[in-house]
Amino acid sequence: MEKLTEVQKRLIREVADLHEVPIGAYNFRANGGLAGRNTTANIDIVSKEDGSGIDIRIKPGTVRESVHIPVVLSESGLKETVYNDFYIGENSDVTIVAGCGIDNCGVQDSQHDGVHRFYVGKGAKIRYVEKHYGSGDGLGKRILNPVTEVYMEEGSSMEMEMVQIKGVDSTERTTIAELKKDARLVVRERLMTHGEQYAISIYKVTLQEEGGSADVVSRSIARDRSYQKFDACVIGNAPCKGHTECDSIIMDEGTILAVPSLEAHHVDAELVHEAAIGKIAGEQLIKLMTLGLTEQQAEEEIINGFLA
Amino acid sequence: MLELKNIFFSVESDGMQKTIIHDLNLTVDDNKFVVVTGPNGSGKSTLAKLIAGIEKPTAGQILLDGVDITDMEITERARTGMGFAFQQPVRFKGIKVHTLLRLASGTNLSVSDACDYLSEVGLCARDYVHREVNASLSGGELKRIEIATVLARNSRLTVFDEPEAGIDLWSFQNLIRIFESMRKNIKDSSIIIISHQERILNIADEIAVLADGTIERHGTRDEIFPSLIGTESAQDACNRLRRNV
Fold this sequence. Notes:
The complex is a heterodimer. Chain A is mainly β. Chain A has helices at residues 6-16, 282-289, 295-307; strands at 25-30, 33-38, 43-47, 53-58, 63-68, 71-73, 79-88, 93-103, 110-120, 125-135, 142-144, 147-152, 157-166, 170-179, 184-193, 198-207, 213-222, 227-236, 240-250, 255-264, 269-278. Chain A has a domain at 6-168. Chain A is built from three helices and 21 strands. In chain B, helix 7 links the parallel strand 7 and strand 8. Chain A binds chain B through residues 219, 247, 281, 283-284, 286-295, 301-302, 304-308, and chain B through 52, 54, 73-75, 78-79, 83-84, 86, 89-90, 92-96, 99-100, 103-104, 106, 132, 149, 153.
């Protein structure tokens, strides 16, 4: 952490809630280079030989441990693609915090494309948190195009929290998951776009074997003239349960396109999708105003609650 | 003291002006519990909204303690000490019961204080304080939370729009106890209730009867109540149930 500049430390606080060096394993990446790493007896982090990213190996049976792998970019004009592979041992129970913060005060675009692959072993339980954040008032864009691939073995479970609230100009997020017998995937996406921002979020979840379940839920707010597209497809190839939901608030001159879809290849695949787009209800504002809030304060409370 | 002077309110419907409130005059003194009753469509809910500032009168004047509040916005009226309980409470995705009560109280309300308000309205606080005020709550639960938010306001003047609607008979007793404790605990406070529930009329200090958008009669309970029994302006619970069947 001592190698990081103040701007980089601020970005890390935003994306990983870290105020100091975390306990457990971590890998800090700043402006394309390594800024700090720690491994534990159960969690190893090694750089790929070709320098394209890192491998994170979690031993079977590792419980109550965490891995933090934040990435920060504070130089204008930096573009990188990074491959991070997670090998999660059987019956482990760990929290993984990723996230990327970009501060761009320059005129050139800054871009980080992270490719995360998760190989989740039998019976393993993972909580994954990924936050994206941008700051800086330069003309250069802050661009993030993450790709996440999740391969889940029998009886494993994964909860993914994907958050992007502020400052990322353009993002195209693709998440692909394949689930074996009795595996369970829960995705909670929170997205707010403003200004001229552009965000696309694509999910393709395949429930390959009996007993698999997936719940993919997105809550988003499009402000100003921003554009959002949510495209989630749940595929059932066996007796399984799948649910996808997109709930959006549209404001100002925003645009939202919601495309939830389902594909069943088995008569016992129970699949459901829901999508709703609407403005903040006038009666919600009125209720909070009768409690003494101004219209603007009421709007903020409604947004904060919706994205909480 | 709240004074409504020569209030008119009309809306445009199918290109025609439709008058809903017509030359209405009403004074509510401090320390008074006033029930406004009247048949369906007489303008009761509109009157409640005019008092809270949700609707603005087409003509007339509203004074609170002598100050003209006719042009005051909802927020400003709330801050001058006016509370309003909605007939149909609003749901919020993501906002927790504790947050709503904290916003209502205007203070950094602790969980334990929030629980006190929930217990007041007959909800087991531990089960509700961290729940979202969303569609998972039943109409009755939502109504009680609505009343809890109004309690947390501690307002000098509170308007309840049909507080008994959607509340079961057990909590009906509770509701009456709440009105009584509000009167006792908030100095010089007044309560205005929009209702045609016989049992609420029966505990009023004063009753105002609204008909065709204006106050037809206003007097003490003893003066007004006997003449209302059996009319649409004073119904017992069974009557209302029968009507809803």
